[in-house]
Amino acid sequence: MPLVQIRDVTKVYPASTRGGQPVRAIDGVDLDIEEGDVFGIIGYSGAGKSTLVRLINALEPATSGSIVVDGTDITTLPERDLRKLRLGIGMIFQQFNLFSSRTVRGNVAYPLQVAGRPKAEIRARVAELLDFVGLADKASNYPDQLSGGQKQRVGIARALATSPRILLADEATSALDPETTQEVLELLRTVNRDLGVTIIVITHEMDVVQSLATKVAVMENGRVIETGEVFDVFSKPELPASQRFVSTVVKGVPSASELAALRERHSGRFVTVSFRDGGASQSDVFLEFGREGIGFELVYGGVNEIQGRAFGNLTLELTGPDERIDAVIARLRERIEIVEVV
Amino acid sequence: MDVLVDLGPQFLEATLETLWLVFASLFFGGIGGLLVGLALYVTRAGNLFANRAVFGVLNVIVNIFRPIPFIIFLTAFQPLARTVVGTGIGTEAAIFTLSLASTFGISRIVEQNLLTVSPGVIEAARAAGAGPIRTILTIVLPEALGPLILGYTFVFVAIVDMSAVAGSINGGGLGAFAIQYGFRQFEPVVTWTALAIVIVLVQLVQFLGNWLARKVLRR
Ligand SMILES: Nc1ncnc2c1ncn2[C@@H]1O[C@H](COP(=O)(O)OP(=O)(O)OP(=O)(O)O)[C@@H](O)[C@H]1O
Ligand SMILES: [Mg+2]
């Protein structure tokens, strides 16, 4: 049984204006999130990502469908039980959402106070958490005295206070500069690896998914259109929408304008060959062209690495008799993904 | 100057009366305004206890009564004051009407200041497992405390103003005193002294409010 099991869930917001259309923010979503996953959710603005995670800790009630968290269907729970559920699910936010009226210590202590833990235990736990996120010396500071990266560390410490098994991260690094983003991602990786916390990260930054997530779901118009291992989805996206998304981070696929520029300098046929580890190697492919006397020139390309596995996309200009090129391409297709770029 | 010496005891009495009028009204109106303001805030669409009907009714009531000029308010609510405190004149009646009037004014100030609390912060409290009441008490009110203190300081000055009006009709306070002795008996020095006392009082409270707010906001 997955840690989070979402089945045919919809969320409809009533029309905001009189006579307006209700908004189907989530439209028949199925999703399984296993214990220990770092699960990325990507999609364009308005796709329903935030809504989906807010259904998981029941900040919003689902309109229909079932959401089973750790064996309990939360869609039928009364509010009182939902508060207990939320103690077992941490959440961090793009704007950090720290309590400005409380010190760093007070922020991290808050969920523990809500949980009704004794004072001595809270003090010890807060110290431990601040140590973990590297902010022990800032305990008495107020949030407005911290940098963005430090604020998010406090956010993470607060989210982990009650030792939740799930951490929801809604665009947690989107307000940070690239360097700080890396620091926070490293911290999240530690949270997942050392504390065994299952993390659900929403992001529109593909490199976050690429470097942090193990699985990913691509959302569009309230639906999950593609889901799977990050490596699979990134190296071989099935649908045009996911391809578009993936192409923003995956190196090696020329954009339309780049292609136009290439065409001005090259007159041969273009093919893009996608290498994935385990498949045919580059030398296999190049040998095949050489044997048939087909001229080939690498005009565009790049190699990506996800979780230690490499995949690459190389665009080649082929020159030679058309029927021989067609024959080679047909033969190679059996062993590797190769598409003619037109 | 002899006038001041002669009137010394009455002056002191009038000052104490004003203080009593103002602080009692600030206390009752402050609590009333806090409750109504909170109710407006939590029942607003999208908030913790969103309720269109309750919000609509409260909103209309506040909108009707808040802008009424105080002197009209005072006379209009005299019968109600008589019913509630047993008399339509005197300090108690004045305090009642002042509290009622300031409840409407304060409720808007409270509501506006609570609305500045970021929804994200409230979401963080809910995500941490806090229920609505706890969220209001431990997050919303503390987060808005600085501006609330400044708001109440502002209201204090308005109540000093209203108390002079109330006093001049019901008897009592520096306003009535200034009119009776300064204006009617042509003793400008009395008027000016009353003025000086009010200025000092207002400045003191303004200073205290600013100091407290600064302390809360740490700026
Ligand atoms: N409280 C709400 N009331 C009405 N409509 C809402 C509400 N919250 C979200 N929506 C709508 O639901 C849809 C999905 O919104 P959501 O915030 O989940 O998107 P998102 O994928 O997180 O976008 P972003 O990347 O911009 O954060 C949008 O059309 C949005 O306008
Ligand atoms: Mg969002």
Give the % helix of chain A: 25-40%
Q: Biggest sheet of chain A: strands side by side, in what order?
A: 6-7-8-3-9-10
Structural class of chain B: mainly alpha
Give the CATH class of the largest domain in chain A.
Alpha Beta
Structural class estimated from helices and strands of chain A: alpha/beta
Mean pLDDT score of chain A, rounded? 90
In the CATH hierarchy, what is the architecture of the largest domain in chain A at level 2? Answer: 3-Layer(aba) Sandwich
- Low-pLDDT parts of chain B are none
Number of domains of chain A: 2
Strand content of chain B: under 5%
The portion of residues assigned to helices of chain B is over 70%
Radius of gyration of chain A: 24 Å
Shape of chain A: elongated
Largest sheet of chain A: 6 strands, mixed
Protein name (chain B): ABC transporter permease
Organism (chain B): Labedella endophytica
Main location (chain B): membrane
Pfam families (chain B): BPD_transp_1
Question: Keywords, please?
Answer:
heterodimer; A: 342 residues; alpha/beta; Rossmann fold; Alpha-Beta Plaits; 2 domains; four-stranded antiparallel sheet; elongated; B: 219 residues; mainly alpha; MetI-like fold; binds adenosine-5'-triphosphate; binds magnesium ion
What does this entry look like structurally?
The complex is a heterodimer of chains A (342) and B (219). With 342 residues, chain A is an alpha/beta fold. Chain A has 2 domains: 2-248, P-loop containing nucleotide triphosphate hydrolases (Rossmann fold, 3-Layer(aba) Sandwich), CATH 3.40.50; 256-340, 2-Layer Sandwich (Alpha-Beta Plaits), CATH 3.30.70. Chain A is built from 12 helices and 14 strands. Chain A has helices at residues 49-56, 79-87, 104-114, 119-132, 148-160, 178-195, 206-212, 230-235, 240-247, 256-265, 282-291, 322-333, and strands at residues 4-13, 23-33, 38-43, 64-69, 72-73, 89-93, 166-170, 198-202, 215-220, 223-229, 269-276, 295-306, 309-319, 337-341. In chain A, the strands form 3 sheets. A 6-stranded mixed beta sheet of chain A has the order 6-7-8-3-9-10, sandwiched between helices. In chain A, strands 2-1-4-5 form a 4-stranded antiparallel beta sheet, with helices on one face. A 4-stranded antiparallel beta sheet of chain A has the order 12-13-11-14. In chain A, a hairpin with a 2-residue loop joins strand 4 (64-69) and strand 5. The longest helix of chain A is centred in the middle third of the chain and has 18 residues, at 178-195. The mean pLDDT of chain A is 90. The model of chain B has no long low-confidence stretch (mean pLDDT 86). The relative contact order of chain B is 0.15. The longest helix of chain B is centred in the N-terminal third of the chain and has 42 residues, at 2-43. Chain B has 10 helices and no strands. Chain B has 219 residues and is mainly α. Chain B has one domain (1-218): MetI-like (MetI-like fold, Orthogonal Bundle), CATH 1.10.3720.10. The chains are: A alpha/beta (342), B mainly alpha (219). Chains A and B meet through helix 2, strand 6 and helix 3 of A and helix 6 and helix 7 of B. Bound molecules: adenosine-5'-triphosphate (ATP) and magnesium ion. Adenosine-5'-triphosphate binds at residues 13, 16, 23, 25, 43, 45-51, 204 of chain A.
